[in-house]
Amino acid sequence: MARHIAFGDIDNFDIDTLNNIMESTCCPQTKMTDEVVHAFVKSWLPPQQPYHDQDISMIVKHAASHSHSLIKLMHTIFIEANHRLLFTRAMPQCANRGDTQSIKFILDIAQDAATTTGNSPLNLNLDVLTDFKTNRITDVEVMAMLMDTGIIQNTQQYHPIIVGVLDHACSNGLVDMMTFIHERLTDVKLVPSLHSMEDAVMANHLNVIVYLFGDQSSTMWRAMSQHPTHVIRLLIQLRHTAFIDGHVKMITWITNRINQLKLERSSTHK
User: Domain residues for 60?
Assistant: First the structure.
């Protein structure tokens, strides 16, 4: 690799090669150094500025997918203020790794760059919102930081991202994330999809089902508590999924909850 860089023989190396080089810095006992990555990126870029925004965004995103040190390394390469504003487009990749340190670093350098250029520090575009949908956020601290800084907002534009996080949390048993979203967004009733609830049952995440249908503070329960018949039908469907996978504790809890709801419904109708 060093020989290729020294002779400028990297015409056949594409962005995937660059990503592999970056990834190799995170491997145990790696011999790849920051100096080699720095030299490769500099050689891979056009010899004369200005660099294309798309190239910068792509490189920084790849760096953000791997480590905080790589983001700091890119910071030494892209030194123009308008280049550093583009770093905000790599926040979804940082969020996916649960890296609040990198998100804060990016926000700080974007704020400094904004002061120089007079532009908004949050240089977010449609691609960033799309990346937030595909790069699932699993860390509550990251989600809190993104919402505290206005990167993710409680508006219709951002609700698909939040619902995506909620669905992923539901499917993977992350009740702490579900609780955070429900407590944070008290003015809207965002609930996980049926598909994600079935995923939770298939993965035997009883804690998710108990939270959704047994905790009266959950948004799911608050949204459906006035319609016990619908809740019972939904629980019967989820119990069927549990039967298929043989999750006995899940079946027992759902059955008990169904019987309890039926009893409460009968006493209400008397």
Answer: 1-152
